[in-house]
Amino acid sequence: MCLLNELLKQNFIIMNLKGNNKEEILRELTDRFYEEGLIEDKNSLFNTLIERENIATTGLGRHVGLPHARTNAVSKLHLVFAKSEKGIDFKSLDKKKVFLFFLFVGPDDKNEEYIKILAKLSRLIRIKEVRESLISAKNEDEVLDIIKNNE
């Protein structure tokens, strides 16, 4: 079973997103996948995420967004964590701004693992202390420690 702290690497953490809306945030997150050499076509992943958002928002509430998609643009499971200092209108279920983002993608042939990781992320972000700690985290090491210690 894959652990979140094994998926999340320091270079997959963005401490201060610049985007001001859902599309800009998704573009910024997608760009990180491209910069790290995980995808060849960043527009393909971006479009897949937009299509997923058009079905139903991944703004879960409690200041958390969990954009996710299955796509063969990647060959294995990947997780990016990012935070916004100002908060973004991500069309969340509770109408509150989103400060914490977990972008999770995986290939079509890893469905069982994909669902298990989504469940782990969902359990993690339900914990108020974890959300508060992640919002106040000052650097990548703190983020990694919070996730590892609460997984």
Tags for this entry?
single chain, 151 residues, alpha/beta, Mannitol-specific EII, Chain A, 6-stranded mixed β-sheet, 6 helices, 44% helix
Written account of the structure:
This protein is α/β, with parallel strands linked by helices and 151 residues long. It has a single domain, classed as Mannitol-specific EII, Chain A, CATH 3.40.930. The protein has six helices and six strands, in the order H-E-H-H-E-E-E-E-E-H-H-H. Strands 1, 2, 3, 4, 5 and 6 form a six-stranded mixed beta sheet that branches. A hairpin with a 2-residue loop joins strand 2 and strand 3. The chain is globular. It starts with a helix and ends with a helix.
Series of secondary-structure elements, N-terminal to C-terminal: HEHHEEEEEHHH
Per CATH, what is the topology? Answer: Mannitol-specific EII, Chain A
Number of domains: 1
Helix content: 40-55%
Stretches where pLDDT is under 50 for at least 5 consecutive residues are none
Into which percentage range does the β-strand content fall?
A: 15-25%
Task: Give the SSE map.
Elements: H1 4-7, E1 13-14, H2 22-35, H3 42-55, E2 59-61, E3 64-65, E4 68-70, E5 78-88, E6 98-106, H4 111-125, H5 128-136, H6 140-150
Parallel strand pairs: 1-5, 3-6, 4-6
Antiparallel strand pairs: 2-3, 5-6
Helix pairs in contact: 2-3
